[in-house]
């Protein structure tokens, strides 16, 4: 499973990249607005830090507009992945971009049918939103599990990118479900490294060591 960070916060990206296990970045319009900076500038700076797929989302609602917005983004760096919404226009844009060998992440997926269509349109990543399904009383990770199963049925090469991840437990369940990628907020990313018994174990080893070498 690959680990992406779901943020446009440069300091958070540098910190996560320093662990050596960060594989890519996803951003969305809400995250870019939060950064308070120009879209292209943020994406360019991220591309200089992380050597992996960087999803940059278009905001047009029609296919032609999506394709037009994607052009300057693709020119920024070969690692840029165009993120389109799961709509008929988004799927048409995905099909057109895929034919041009541009990688696409189809986002806002809430159903197996949507994921299958994204795969059919040649998407590199299909992004089911776990947390937002949980928010309406459904089991978001269950959808990840179902998409993984459907993709295996047809030997689909599109990667299942579990998004809208809210907790370390989501990540654990996505790993068990067979997600290819999880994209996580910075706080959740760092939580994945720790366990109280690891901390307690280190403390005991160090105390024993110190008492022996007195
Ligand atoms: O990757 C999608 C993500 O940014 C949405 O997360 O927590 O706003 O549902 P959330």
Give an overview in words.
Helix 1 packs parallel to helix 3 (39-49). The chain is of the alpha/beta class and 214 residues long. It is built from 11 helices and 8 strands. Helices cover 53% and strands 17% of the residues. Strand 5, helix 6 (112-120) and strand 6 (125-128) form a beta-alpha-beta unit. It has helices at residues 10-17, 29-35, 39-49, 63-76, 88-99, 112-120, 130-135, 140-153, 168-177, 186-191, 196-212; strands spanning 2-6, 24-26, 54-57, 80-85, 104-109, 125-128, 159-162, 181-184. An 8-stranded parallel barrel has the order 1-2-3-4-5-6-7-8, surrounded by 6 helices. The mean pLDDT is 97. The termini are far apart. Residues 6, 26, 28, 129, 131-132, 163-164, 166, 183 line the site of SN-glycerol-3-phosphate.
Number of helices in the DSSP assignment: 11
Strand count, sense and barrel status of the largest sheet are:
8 strands, parallel, barrel
Sheet/helix structural class: alpha/beta
Q: How many beta strands in the DSSP annotation?
A: 8
The gross shape turns out to be: globular
| Ends distance | 44 Å
Helical proportion?
40-55%
Please state the CA-atom Rg, rounded to the nearest Å.
19 Å
What is the average of the pLDDT values? 97
- Unreliable stretches (pLDDT < 50, length at least 5) are none
Give the SSE order as H and E letters. EHEHHEHEHEHEHHEHEHH
Order of strands across the biggest sheet?
Answer: 1-2-3-4-5-6-7-8
Described by its quaternary structure, the protein is single chain
| Strand residue content | 15-25%
Which cofactors or ions or other ligands sit in this model?
Answer: SN-glycerol-3-phosphate
